[in-house]
Amino acid sequence: MSRRSHSSVAAKRRTHALVLAALGDATRLSLVAKLCRGQPRSISQLTRGSKLTRQAITKHLRVLESVGIVHGVRKGRESRFEFDPEPLGGIKEYVDFVSEQWDQALSRLKSFVED
Amino acid sequence: MNSVIEKRIELKAPISRVWRALTDYREFGEWFRVKLDGPFVPGQVSRGQITYPGYEHVKWEAVVQKMEHERLFSFTWPHPNSLEKVDCPPDYSGAPTTLVEFRLEKTASGTLLVLTESGFDKLPGDRRLEAFQRNDGGWTEQMKNVENYLAENHVAQKP
């Protein structure tokens, strides 16, 4: 492995580690799970159904924001938070995963029809 | 962005054999590893249960699009938020779909199968989170990396 690619892998790992450290908390993980659905949510929406206060939820959102997987967006008078998967890798990883599943399925199909 | 998967595979079997393996729901289930409730009918939903080890909790759901005899078989299927069992069973309601097409061509030695899956650009970010988890060996492994990293770098992550 070249020095350059090694350092880029290291950088990627470092980002992942920070993101995961931010996610390594039940409250923050549940906030991300809510935001993952695609719709930006306000703090009130995110606080609803939780035992935590607005302040506590805000604090957790700031931690997620600090590693870049959550962004605050202003909508009128209200701040909304949205999920940004970019630090976790692009959609390409998912397509690669599906692609690999097809390779396996098609090789099973090949043995199935050629037997 | 590359959001189309294309696979070409040469099969040493007559086109009629390949067509049956693709469109007979029992035969499809054999190699795809899914137990389907009934035959494929264009315009109708096909339902079943995945039999692939580790994914038996996942439901199969697809809408059959085209069945042009020995030429083209296609369906759309949803990519739910997560296929993992951790939180809850996969939720297919309103999940974005991709189009899967199998095209067949007769060749000297058998059949050329061209598979395409398109429409990944419609998928929202949460699928990336899942792909990330898969590609990086899961949470347990990652949490170890996190611990090591934090220990080495003395990073405080508590709010």
Task: Give the neighbour order of strands across the main sheet of chain A.
Answer: 1-3-2
How many helices of chain A in DSSP terms? 5
User: Order of strands side by side in the largest beta sheet of chain B?
Assistant: 1-7-6-5-4-3-2
Q: Report the helical percentage of chain A.
A: 55-70%
CATH topology of the largest domain in chain B: Alpha-D-Glucose-1,6-Bisphosphate, Chain A, domain 4
Query: What is the domain total for the residues of chain B?
Result: 2
Q: Strand pairing plus helix content of chain B: what structural class? A: alpha+beta
Beta percentage of chain B is: 25-35%
Radius of gyration of chain B: 20 Å
The CATH architecture term of the largest domain in chain B is: 2-Layer Sandwich
CATH superfamily of the largest domain in chain B: START domain
Mean pLDDT of chain B: 78
Strand percentage of chain A, roughly?
Answer: 5-15%
| Secondary structure tally: strands of chain A | 3
Give the termini distance of chain A in whole angstroms. 41 Å
Oligomer classification? heterodimer
Instruction: Provide the structure class of chain A.
Output: alpha+beta
Query: The biggest beta sheet of chain B, please?
Result: 7 strands, antiparallel
Q: What structural keywords apply?
A:
heterodimer; A: 115 residues; alpha+beta; Arc Repressor Mutant, subunit A; 2 domains; three-stranded antiparallel beta sheet; 5 helices; 63% helix; disordered N terminus; B: alpha+beta; seven-stranded antiparallel beta sheet; disordered C terminus
